[in-house]
Amino acid sequence: MKDVSGTIKERRTVRRFTDAPVEQEAIVSLLNEAAGLYEAEGTPHWRCLYAGDPESRDELAECMIAKVKGSTLAKLLPAKMTEFLKKQIINTPAHIIFIAEAADTQQQRDVNFAAVCSIMQNVQLLGWEQGLGMLWYTDPMILSESLYEKIGMREGERIAGILEIGYFEKTPRARKRKPAERSWTTIGEDGSLLPGSSLISPQNVLKLLNEAVWAPNDGLRQPWRFIYVTGSEVARQLSSVEEQVVLPLLLVVATEEADPHKQQEDYAAVCCLVQNFQLLAKSEPWQVRRHIPEWVYERERCKALGLRPLERIVAVLELGGGNRGPESGALPPEVRIELNSFVKTGPL
Q1: pTM for this one?
Q2: Based on CB atoms within 10 Å of each CB, which residue in 58, 100, 182, 295 is the most buried?
């Protein structure tokens, strides 16, 4: 990525596209590069389906409006409105459906979902640098049984969203973000933890977070909170590795709405923020270890960290300095892309 900070802050959700086609090769390249930028512990399992030709877009449109047609809302909407919605889908040059695969444990399900959401954010950022705009669709009204059947949805899988993709002419206006300081809590001593290094202070972390908060989130809900754990026995107990010097931890927390759909949207938004932070940290460069440890599912342990009843930890980031060097041996998540028609699938 050429300019991580600039791209994160400049990216916008785009709803109107030109007629210019988006080549399949460009989509494949975006997906592979996006997957390569994702770094976290654990092995995620996800797949995506691409609808880029007229036939597959038409079939996708029929599936997406099927639930609307069968609802009481259809009786209130003129037929022209349904046709307009269908045309909007058909005329969008490309669509990618992202799916987090099933897993036996909640931890692995979260690993899968966090990965696919983070990779979707990478696709949006990389696409923006190439003049591609995107809309992340999650509306329950489009998630019909006919869509699940067409895409071969398997038991336990979750659709993270559909990216509508195309070139655009007008950049939407920016909307302000809440400063990270207003959602910030510190546990332990302030200041840098690494002797002889300028890293990593709460001020440095907040600087990056104030850029990372430019993440996609529906209605600008900004459902995140940050707990910075530093220089204390708490940090030592939570750390995943034995260190002579205890590394600072950044716990990224999501608030939970009562509505399950909003819960999933908010969790995805927090995953995108975490991905933004990792990209920014890498450009510093900082060493960041991202994971979802088992203890985040222990309610009493989380409560001791100040977690509120309707909150959950989305990611634990262990923050090292530039003198630690990058991890080696980590492979990017496997990209499973089903191309051309989301009905007639095949391997990449």
Answers
A1: 0.90
A2: 100
